[in-house]
Model the fold of this input.
Amino acid sequence: MKIEHRKVTTRDIKNPVKYMLWGRAAGRCEFSGCNKPLWKSSVTQDPVNIAQNAHIYAFSEDGPRSNKGISKTQLNDFANLLLICHECHRNIDVRKDGGRYTVALLQQWKSAHERRIEIVTGIVPTKRSSVLLYGVNIGAHSSPLNFVDAASALFPRRYPDDNKGIELGLINSSQSERDASFWKTERENLEGKFDRRVKERIAKGEVDHLSVFGLAPQPLLILLGSLMIDITRAEVFQLHREPGGWAWPSSARALEFSVQKPSTFDGPPALVLSLSATVTPDRITDVLGEKASIWTLTIPKPNNDFVKSRQHLAQVRTLLRPLLDEIKAHHGQRTPLHIFPAAPVSLSIELGRIRMPKADMPWEIYDQVGQHGFIPALTIA
Done:
């Protein structure tokens, strides 16, 4: 009697495949949007393996997504497996045909997750950056700054060096620009915290690079930038309305700036940043008088969402430094320069960063407060 030997397909996955799956997924659920750590209990946080190996093409012919188009020997290969949590495993297998969780979709999720892990873990330690958050109430609106949103904007160029960042804003402050003590209180808080939480840590070698995220009235952002003049290893980020978030868009058009100079230089000098909104000359002369010498940096259509790349910030820095020198040449180093900013937050910080304390004019910085127009806010001598 002839005995027929059949090759039996087993659910057992070879150890090398398991190790590769865990490594490429970094021990996290590969279901898009889950990312749950699979090495601990989500309830007690005790260390425990809660990972499951889910088949993209089903293990059995009548399983979810079937296994037509794949050989039996490939069922337990790395390419056909997802590292996944129990909840998400049940979700993708709830329907006989897989439903909306198609083979193509699961393969896409697997590839995207493993590519993200490869990028993140491939960043060398020299790309660490300290996330600096400075949020202050703007009018009646509290600052929406948070570490998670900010830190995600660093990848893949850099990654945060801790899980909370450096916070410089006042906690639960109820003040706004309309309050008499607002500017004094906020200035003392910012300068004090910057000295303790930034300068001291830099001196100790604990901070090598700063990624700066600010949402505050513009005079305070300019002040923050002026505190950073000795910190060359820093990058300022901009919150974008479109497409949204802090990450720099993948592409951006070149900007066209123009500088409008005064016809005479006899009056008090004013530098107007007419960038996020149009600032007309009468708003300046209402403050400084009809003889004001107004220097204006502007773009064809001022708006609050035009900064779309690091190159845009570099372009503005390149324009502003010689412009400040030219104003000083006409008006003298000891003459106060009155600054009226209507600019995106990143450019306000960059304006402060290019200041040269021993060479530049004293700055009188103004803030737009509702229907009251521009009011004096801060002095940087």
Remarks:
- The longest strand covers residues 128-135.
- Confidence is low (pLDDT under 50) at residues 1-8.
- Residues 64 and 96 are 5 Å apart (CA to CA).
- The two ends are 104 Å apart (CA to CA).
